[in-house]
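Bit of a strange request maybe. I'm writing a small parser for C-alpha cell strings and I need a real example to test against, not something I typed by hand. Could someone generate the C-alpha cells for this chain?
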Amino acid sequence: MKKHGKEDEGAGRIIFGKLFRAHYADLLRYARRLVASRHAAEDIVQEVFMSVWLRRELIDFSAPIRPYLMRATHHKCLDYLASLAVMQKVSGQDAVGELIDLAAAGDSPYDELLLKEMSDRVERLIASFPARRQAVFRLSRSEQLSNQDTARRLGISVKAVEKHISAALAAIRRCLSTYDL
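Reply from user aminoacidic:
Good idea to test on real output. This should exercise your parser:
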C-alpha cells in the first residue's frame, strides 16, 4: 500500500478496510481469550490495526497477513499483561486489577458510571502531572514503551523514567484510594 497519490491512498484505504473487516472479529476473540477483558481486547486489536496502518509501507502484503496480525495481537496482549503485572507489583495493591474487572464486568449502570468517573478522575490527574512526568507515563502506558525506549526517546536516564513512573503510580493509587475497591 505504498503512497503515490490520492488515488493510491484511496485504494489503500479500501484495501485496509477489507483487511480490517476480514480479521477484526477473529483477532478480537483471540485477544479477549488472552487478556480476559472485552475493553482491553478491543483496544489491543485497534492498536494492532493502527500499527499496520502506520507501517503499511514496510509490511509485505503479498505474504499471508493473518499470521502477522495474530503474532502482533499476541505480542500486544503480552505487553498489556506485563504492564498490568508491573503496575500491580509497583502499587502493592490489586486496584488496577479491580478496575479492569469492573470494566470487563459492566454488570450495572452503576459500575459503568463508577468506571467512567474513575477513568475521568485518573485522566485529569495525569493531565495535571508536570510535563516530563506526563510524557514518561503516557509513553510507558499508552504506547507501552519499555523504560529504556522511553528514556531514549525523551533523552533522560532510565532511573529518571523509573522515578517518574513510580511517582505517577503513587499519585494514581492515592487518587483511587477513595474508592472502595
